[in-house]
What we know:
heterodimer; A: 141 residues; mainly alpha; 6 helices; 82% helix; elongated; B: 108 residues; 2 domains; 4 helices; 0% strand
Amino acid sequence: MLGLxxxxxxxxxxxxxxxxxxxxxxxxxxxxxxxxxxxxxDIDEAVRMITLAGQDKKKSARWRMVCQxxxxxxxxxxxxxxxxxxxxxxxxxxxxxxxxxxxxxLRLQEVExxxxxxxxxxxxxxxxxxSESTASVAQPS
Amino acid sequence: MIQERNLSIPGGLxxxxxxxxxxxxxxxxxGMEVVGGLLAVIGAGFGLIRxxxxxxxxxxxxxxxxxxxxxxxxxxxxxxxxxxxIELPELRESFVxxxxxxxxxxxx
Lengths: 141, 108
């Protein structure tokens, strides 16, 4: 198994990244990559991999499951950013007396808001794909 | 956890091809046929079933990474998980099963 694992790792590091963007590889490869990205909170990559895995119309139960996992993680991260925004707001009211500090807090809040909006956008994109897959299951063409 | 049990042919084939490649590499290194097709078979099986275990681990990992306030009890956490899994039916079902298994384990 050591030889096989080494070969898999070599494949993933060298050959796979060059061709994965074309969607030629098996769906499970993309699901694995999506789960890896999810572990590292690389949501952008996870969404990219999920999208590549779900290119064909027939989406598997595994695809739906991984897609839902990414959506769930997006929601968790959104809630974390919203809590941080609340915290910044509170601190702004208490400590934001000077212009410099006030600007700093406002900048921090802007960063948090941007991060939250990006995650919400990912969530919406995946929910759309998920609902398409539900529709295709409900009404097979 | 996952209802679908059909096996992935591309996954199996990829595993088998990698297994053959591993065997050839071993043959090249050792000069002998030491595994006789075994790695190809293992590779195929690996490609077919590994993803389910990985998805299961990821589900547990997701629950573990839900932020918990020091003051909140398990009902708050359940409520939080419930809210966040709206429109995610399969994941919600998996969470319910995990939680039930946890409660059963605590009782035992």
